[in-house]
Amino acid sequence: MTVQIGDIGRAVRETEYAVRGPIVARAQELERQGREIIYCNIGNPQALSQRPLTWVRQILALLEYPELMDRLPAGVLPADAVAKAREVLAATRHGLGAYTDSKGFLFVREAIAAFIRRRDGIEADPEHLFLTDGASKGVQAALRLLIDGPGDGVLIPTPQYPLYSATITLYGGAQLPYPLDEASGWQLTREGLERAVAGARARGIRPRAVCVINPGNPSGALLDEKNVAMVLDFAREHGLAVLADEVYQENLYRPGDRFVSFASLLERKGYREVSLFSFHSVSKGLLGECGHRGGYMECRNVPAAVQDEITKLQSVSLCANSAGQLVTYLMVTPPEPGGPSRARWEQERRGILESLARRAGIVEQGLNRVPGIQCNPVTGAMYAFPRITLPPGVTDDEYCLALLEETGICVVPGSGFGQAPGTWHFRTTILPPADKLQAVVERIAAFHASFRGRRAG
Asked: Are strands 206-213 and 152-158 parallel, antiparallel or unpaired?
């Protein structure tokens, strides 16, 4: 028989992922027709001209084709890059073309554990780490563990990255939105979390976990230490696990700001009854290696029997891809100070972060000059989530589609992320090059004035 749409599982049909939804499909159609499209819909740095880190690509090239180390003249590549490639090849035993352990290469997990110790000053166990195809696969594994049906709910921020809403729907669970406070720069509030739990229990839904994205996507906000501590206190009181999405931890743009991991505060508080699943990725930060699909999940206060179930889930897919595992390794093992690659790595690192900070300012300041648009400071991550004033009866979907058709700029309606009732937003990345980003802001400003004028009339 021919499979029809009605034959497809209901959960699949009801799953939505706005970041690559109908507006992006229309953008691709317009591009095929010859239109220039500026894709501001997704955090895909290298698609928007961010260059790969030289350290990563030199070593990755040698790992994929080791014969280069014997064929290239001495001095063509830095000695520390060649040495690192030889070290990694020896540790993999069979190179990149073979399956790895279900959890991933042990030496990579050991390097990540050392990275966490340096970052947080706490102990980390390689056996509690799982290498994944991007952070998304780790998030999905944790949610798969916690959701057993429609009676299980997971608290997710509003606005949130639709990976969470889509996966919860796909697994048959209940989304339990809690609001981020736009007036206070998208911080969490204890009151909002409490309302989400109380509302769930009133409907007979058992809250299982609270998800937090820090720095935020799409909000672009960094949570302070007080907010992180509050979430852990809340989770402890209500018997919830915590899912900490920390993939933007290097993307900080305001002088004096500091990323505080959930793991560091969990250990400082000594909360052994709170299970924590933390996620990191090579797709963001300095690397922007989205296509290599590398990342990891760390488990804390998760019993061995539960971790065995995670290993089983990993084993169903055999393992994460080996190239992504090794890019993750290079993310947590930069060139050694004093080595021939260090100065270039530091220059590239500084250049990327300074450029992103400038672009965050271009978006925030430029949009705030437009009557009818309000944009909170972009203090972290790669996005802005400006609030827009629209004529009565007009939705943000209509607005974003018209913006695409008239200007070629592809952004995502705020409705795809969740927003307070009666408000409208869109999400845009800050990733286009500065000159192009300035043009993007100017086009949005002209479009916004024209659109409101036409629709109001």
From this structure: parallel
